# Entry
Amino acid sequence: MGTDVNPKLKEMLKELHELAHQIQEERNRGEPSLLNLQKVHDKIQQEGKVSPYYKSRLKGMYSTAIADAQAEAQLLQQAIDKIAEIKSYRNKTVTEPKVPVMRRGVLMSMVHKDAANLPLWKASTRYEKPPPLCGCLQADSSYIVPKGKYVAALVKGSEGEDNWILAEVVSFNSTTGKYDVDDIDSEEGRERHILSKKRVIALPLYKADPILQKECLYPVMTPSWRCTLRLHASTKELSTLYPKILRTTTRFCLRTQAIRMDILHLLK
# Structure
């Protein structure tokens, strides 16, 4: 690690490194429980029945295995939170000047990477509901998008038509209730817009779990939009969705701040 690393950032990276070691130690500690469970199941399969002895033994072994898994999951969540904290801190402390004009391909790649790196929200219980801005869940009406965050903004075009853009929040005026945002994809450089809250949509802060929240809406990157759709696919197909979406014909329908996307023959 270089000597020019910010001391606070260096300390956070050290904490993340320690968490990684704790996770591996917890995993190693819980592995014998899983191996013993497998051995008991093999014996039960050989005998063809579950005796009262094995039933009682399995109950205790499963309780131990669940406790081990919960301890590991808690450490993993701490590591995810620490990574998000590090990314947020680095974004706030960047001193390099921003490039006013960026090629479309580079911009889309940057935004796609930003969306892919969103932290995964994990429920503490099976029945806990995802928070606002997880996947496509909307923010509370009182939520103010922080400076530097990307938003979907509805602006007036040169001919008075409404257009959706990807913008970066510059500031929010609590007196007027309006945002100052910069169009990051403007051909003339960063174009400033002053918009009311109802014309600004906050983008997700968390990714939803594709296994536990199958009915959630998920953020999707397309060549010209960062939008959402409801997924109807098996878990094993999720990793291949984005490339197929990019190659699929899409239709957009804008209705009162909502962006809906129809994807034809998505998995064909």
User: Anything to note?
Assistant: Confidence is low (pLDDT under 50) at residues 218-268. The first strand starts at residue 150 and ends at 156. Residues 162 and 255 are 11 Å apart (CA to CA).
